Amino acid sequence: MFGLIVLFALAAVGIVYWVGIYNGLVDLRERVKTAWANVDVVLKRRQDELPQLLEACERCMQFEQETFERVLRALGAIGQASAAGNIAAVGAGEQQLRAGMGRLFAIAENDPRLKTDESFRSLQSRIRGLEEAIADQRELYNEQVNLNNIRIGALPDAILARWFGFEPAQLFDFLTDEKRDVDLGALFGA
Question: Domain for residue 10, yes or no?
């Protein structure tokens, strides 16, 4: 009788242990989803602001149509990739967008009309703030992804992760030769 009680107690402890692991994995998966939702919100806010900035630039810089089109294509690619949940494609779009924005602001820096245009300066400041927010949210997202991926790859969590189909999450990387954050001061003329 005593052996049966001990066996039952060990089984109960084992079940509680495995349920705790499962719940921890679910918690991490949800944290990754929430962190990506936060990134996505800031990306959408920037996507709403950039066309206004481009419009302000276009009034003064009609000859730079190629740069405007490049930025708009990148914005469209980011929007589509984000809607599809394709984080790698969002990163590739971000690389294209940053290249286009770098060119746009380099040209704008040399245009005296834009330097004195209050609307442009205000939009530039708002975009700078959104870029900083994207960098912050990206960092938080990648931190949650790392925690998730480490946990589902380590024993004993890996056993339950495989059994219940927990998948590694993808880091939000900008696909570029240089793995560093954008120099916002250089990009936005600060």
Answer: no
Instruction: Note the residue count of the chain.
Output: 190
d(CA 99, CA 81): 18
Whose structure tokens read 């870029």?
131
The model carries a pTM of 0.81
Residue 78 forms part of a structural domain:
yes
Is-contact 174 89, C-beta < 8 A? no
50 in any annotated domain: yes
Cα–Cα nearest to 90, from 178, 182, 174, 180? 174
- Give the count of domains, the chain: 1
Structure confidence by residue, pLDDT tens digits, 24-78: 999 999 999 999 999 999 999 999 888 888 887 777 666 567 888 888 889 889 9
164: DSSP letter: T
Reduced 3-state DSSP string for 91-160: HHHHHHHHHHHHHHHHHHHCCHHHHHCHHHHHHHHHHHHHHHHHHHHHHHHHHHHHHHHHHHHCCCHHHH
Q: What angle do CA 40, 74, 32 make, to 5 degrees?
A: 25
Q: Is residue 113 part of a domain?
A: yes
